[in-house]
Specification:
448 residues; Isoleucyl-tRNA Synthetase, Domain 1; alpha/beta; ATP-binding; 44% helix; Rossmann fold; EC 6.1.1.16; cysteine-tRNA ligase activity; five-stranded parallel beta sheet; metal ion binding
Length: 448
C-alpha cells in the first residue's frame, strides 16, 4: 500500500518513495539531556514512533536514528548551578530520557548517537565548510555565513525568526558578518568543557552535530527527517545549509515531517506560567503512561494538542475501556467460518485502518476504525485478531490487557474517598488513596 506524507519542504501531501527501494533512513532530532522529559517531548517522540511502526508494518526496512545532545550551553549552565560535572548531568538525564520513552512504549529507535562521540566528524565538517569559504573565524568561534548559501530559508519559506521559533540558541556576536550567521565551533572558555582539535580548542555548536551524525550513518542524503515544528528555523534550515554546502547535493532530505505544538490549558507550556509538566508528573498523578499514548493517538501529528488534566483523565478512561473490551475477547478466540457478509466487514475494517494511516498518518481516524470494529457484529476471534494486528502500530500493549474484577473492599474505599473529596476533606481522602494503592490499584483524578 502507498503511504502519503505532508512534506514540509514542498508543502504538499506526497506519495512517499524512499531513495533505495524499501530501505528507509529516518532521523529525528533528539533531546538535550539536561532536564526531565516534558510532555512536548512525549508528543513528538510518540507520534514519530507511530510513523516508524507503520512503515515497518508496511514492510519497509527502517533505520531510525536519533541524536543525543550531550554538550550545549544549557548543559554547562545547569551543571554549574548544581555544582556537578557536566558529564554526570548528561549521563543521568540520558538514562532518564530512555526510561521515559520505554514507559511510553516508544521502542522503535534503532540507534541513539551522542554528539560527544562524533567530535572528529564534526571537526571534519567544519574544516570542509571553511575550505569551501562557507565558514569564517572570529574571536569566539567559527561561523557559517548564510549569505553564501542562497537557498537558506527554502524549508520554512522565510529567513526572519518569529516568537514561535526555537531561538534560545541564537549565537550573539557583533563581529558576525550576518545577523543570522550561526556558530559551528565554539572556542574554549575557562571552566568549560572543550576538545583539542586542529581548528582550535572548543566544542560544537548546536546544528553541526546533526549533520555529522547523519552523514556518518546515512551519507549526504536520506529519506525522512523529523522534529517539532519550532525546529524548522533556524535549526533545520541550518542543517540543510551545512550539508548541502559540504556535499553539493540537494536535497539533504527527501521528506521533512514536523509535529505541531503541545499546549497546556490553551497556553504555551512554560515553567513561568506554572503549566510545565514532565512525563513523570503525569505518572505521579496516577495516570498510566500509555494513557498519554492513547491521548496522542487522538490528535493528528500536524495538529496542535491541548493538554489538560480533564483530557488525560478522559484518555485514561477511554484506554481502560479499550483494554477491557480487548481482554474480554482474548478468551473467545475460537474461529468460525465467516459468512460472506462478515468476511467483507473484516476486510473493510482492515482496509479502513490502513487507509487512515496511509493518508498522512491520520491516527484519529484509525482509532475510530478500531472502536467501530470492536462494536461491530463480527466474531470475537476476528475482533481480537484485528485488534492485535492494529496494535503493532498503536503500541498500546493490548495483548497484555486482562479482565480485572475490582474487589468489594476497594470499591468501598473508592466511594468513601469520593465522599471525602466532595466534602473538601482532601487530606483524609489522600490517606484513603494510599490504602487503595497499597492494595494494588491506581486512582487517577481528572482535575487535581
Amino acid at each position: 500500500m502507498d503511504i502519503f506524507f505532508t512534506n514540509s519542504l514542498t508543502r504538499k501531501k506526497e506519495k512517499f518513495v524512499p531513495i533505495n527501494d524499501k530501505k528507509v533512513n529516518l532521523f529525528v532530532c533528539g533531546p538535550t539531556v539536561y532536564d526531565y522529559s516534558h510532555l512536548g517531548h512525549a508528543k513528538t517522540y510518540t507520534q514519530f514512533d507511530f510513523i516508524v511502526r507503520y512503515l515497518r508494518y508496511l514492510g519497509f526496512d527502517v533505520f531510525y536514528l536519533q541524536n543525543i545532545t550531550d554538550i550545549d550551553d544549557k548543559i554547562i549552565t545547569r551543571a554549574n548551578e548544581l555544582n556537578i560535572p557536566w558529564s554526570e548531568l548528561t549521563g543521568k538525564f540520558e538514562k532518564l530520557y530512555v526510561a521515559d520513552m520505554e514507559k511510553l512504549n516508544n521502542t522503535s529507535v534503532s540507534k541513539y548517537a551522542r554528539a560527544t562521540d562524533h567530535i572528529d566528524l564534526i571537526v571534519k565538517q567544519v574544516k570542509t565548510l571553511m575550505e569551501k569559504s562557507y565558514a569564517y573565524k572570529i574571536d569566539d568561534g567559527i561561523y557559517f555565513e548564510i549569505s553564501k548559501f542562497p537557498e537558506y530559508g527554502k524549508l520554512s519559506g522565510r529567513t526572519e525568526l518569529t516568537e514561535a521559533d526555537s531561538v534560545s540558541r541564537i549565537d550573539e556576536n557583533n563581529q558576525k558578518r550576518g545577523w543570522n550567521d550561526f556558530c559551528l565551533w565554539k572556542f574554549s572558555k575557562p571552566g568549560e568543557p572543550s576538545w583539542e582539535t586542529d581548528i582550535g580548542n572548543g566544542r560544537p555548536g548546536w546544528h553541526i552535530e546533526d549533520t555529522a551524525i547523519t552523514e556518518k550513518f546515512f551519507g549526504p542524503q536520506y529519506d525522512i527527517h523529523g522534529g517539532a515544528v519550532d525546529l524548522i528555523i533556524p535549526h533545520h534550515e541550518a542543517e540543510i545549509a551545512q550539508m548541502e554546502a559540504i556535499s553539493g547535493k540537494a536535497p539533504l532530505v527527501r521528506c521533512w515531517l514536523h509535529t505541531a505544538f503541545l499546549m497546556v490549558d490553551g497556553k504555551k507550556m512554560s515553567k513561568s506560567l506554572g503549566n510545565f509538566y514532565t512525563i513523570d508528573d503525569v505518572i505521579k498523578k496516577g495516570f498510566d503512561p500509555l494513557a498519554l499514548r492513547y491521548l496522542f493517538l487522538g490528535a493528528h501529528y500536524r495538529d496542535t494538542l491541548n493538554f489538560t488534566w480533564e483530557s488525560i483523565g478522559a484518555a485514561q478512561n477511554g484506554f481502560e475501556r479499550l483494554k477491557l473490551q480487548v481482554a474480554g475477547l482474548s478468551s473467545e478466540t475460537s474461529r468460525t467460518v465467516l459468512s460472506e457478509e462478515k468476511q467483507k466487514k473484516v476486510d473493510e475494517f482492515r482496509a479502513g485502518f490502513m487507509e487512515a494511516l496511509s493518508d498522512d498518518m491520520n491516527t484519529p481516524r484509525a482509532l475510530a476504525v478500531l472502536w467501530e470494529m470492536l462494536k461491530s457484529n463480527i466474531p470475537s476471534g476476528d475482533k481480537y485478531e484485528l485488534a492485535m494486528s492494529f496494535d503493532e502500530i498503536l503500541g498500546l500493549k493490548l495483548g497484555e490487557a486482562k479482565s480485572i474484577e475490582i474487589p468489594g473492599n476497594v470499591k468501598d474505599l473508592m466511594q468513601k474517598r469520593e465522599r471525602l473529596r466532595s466534602e473538601g476533606k482532601y487530606e483524609e481522602a489522600d490517606k484513603i488513596r494510599e490504602k487503595i494503592q497499597v492494595l494494588g490499584f491506581a486512582v487517577a483524578d481528572k482535575n487535581t
